[in-house]
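Hi C.,

You asked whether I'd gotten around to modeling the 264-residue construct. I have! Everything is below, sequence then structure, no commentary in between.
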Amino acid sequence: MGYRIVVAGATGNVGREMLNILAEREFPLDDIAVVASSRSQGDEVDFGETGRKLKVQNIEHFDPTGWDMALFAIGSEGTKIHAPRFAAAGCTVIDNSSLYRMDPDVPLIVPEVNPDAIAGYTKRNIIANPNCSTAQMVVALKPLHDFAKIKRVVVATYQSVSGAGKAGMDELFEQSRNIFVGDSAEAKKFTKQIAFNVIPHIDSFLDDGSTKEEWKMVVETKKILDPKIKVTATCVRVPVFVGHSEAINIEFENEISADQAQKI
């Protein structure tokens, strides 16, 4: 028996990757639908490398009744409108945006870290997944925390432009090309030139001088792993197309050697 799955935001980078993974892993599907904004209605997207083309439907007119789950990659504004409608129709929403991450009635899940927390999804029929940098960090922290109990984390991230979507990737490509041929490298998506540069500014600045991206790493780590862990984050955008990196300094409550940490 398979599932009936909806991918919302199927024309974006994240939505396309969701389709690739569903196809690659041969996820048990009885049916799959792809939806996006009215601008993309009628377009076709590839279902991974299966050779199958899926026609995009308008999310505003899509009836989620009878569908098992929807993978949302449409940003917070679209999610705010459509996720409650899908959830009320009995279609479980797994949301990639930041909208519901800190909602106490919505579990924030990384399967390798806190799978038991998923039981709470029934309150709103919505499951949130964390910020990209939080997700990769807590997967590494979880076994170390279980072994020696983490007190404090100081992390610096080096985040590729793919985190800013297609527009970010296009801007890096265009600026790099323009610099090589002597043309101007105007910043549009980012606050500064990203080609051959690093920008310690991801998302908006908050009143305390940190960015929202850094705030996300702090509060999401506490919700997923342990509210007692102290976290300090510095998030930097780097001129790499795909792939985030992190340098993490960890203070433990109990003794643990470098060799033990590597083996764990």
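If it helps when you're writing up: The domain at 3-129 is CATH 3.40.50.720 (Rossmann fold).

Thanks,
B.
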